[in-house]
Amino acid sequence: MKSIHTVYSILWSIIWPFFSLCHPCRAIGKENLPQSGALFCANHSCLNDPVCLVMALGRKYQLRPMAKSEFMNIPVLGWLLKKAGVFAVDRGKSDVGAIKTAIKYLKSGEKVLLFPEGTRVKDGVDKYGHESEAKSGAAMLAVRTGVPIVPVYIPEKKNWFRFTTIVIGEPYYPQVESKKGTAEEYKVIAEELMERIHALGAKAA
Questions:
Q1: Which residues form a coiled coil (predicted)?
Q2: Considering the entire predicted model, what is its pTM?
């Protein structure tokens, strides 16, 4: 953990000057940030969304983003991301390895970041032109690990040289009737999660 924190801190310090000048980000609702394990879930419209959130939270509040495997396979960049605590998921299929990794981190008290819709979405439409819908992965992870979900809203529009305000919502524990949750229960939780995320958008204006 110490080596991951060190690389994370170094990369944050390298990236921060650019973002603080060109794409400054700030977070409101920091009083909602859990100090123990939590699952951060946000809307996703731009490639730089994870970096914007990380910059807004500050260097000392480390997240473990789940990133698509294509990024992790890029020479040098993939190695740096891995050393900084990012882990890969093979999208489009059930990636058991990524799920087990996320569960391990959450149960050990770390903060995992993922995007419930699974891909970039603008105006309710994903990059493939399909109507967006939340996947059940976040719901399943929260239920099975017992950690809270932290909804996060990241504005789609990010103006150069002007602050982008990211909103951190209140953590909550999704409830299920069955012991481990069913596919139907996960779907309901996923839909409610996206409603919570988008409801935070009014505070970002």
A1: none
A2: 0.91
Using the predicted structure, report yes or no on whether residue 205 has a pLDDT greater than 80. no
pLDDT of residue 91: 67
Phi then psi for 162, rounded to 5 degrees?
-135, 150
Which whole number is the average pLDDT over 103-120? 93
Query: Number of H helices and number of E strands within the chain?
Result: 7, 9
Are 138 and 118 in contact by the 8 Å Cβ rule? The answer is: no
Residue 11 to residue 177: CA distance in whole angstroms: 43
42, 53 contact by CB (below 8 A):
yes
Interatomic CA distance for residues 202 and 167, integer angstroms: 9
Rounded Cα distance between 28 and 49, Å, is 16
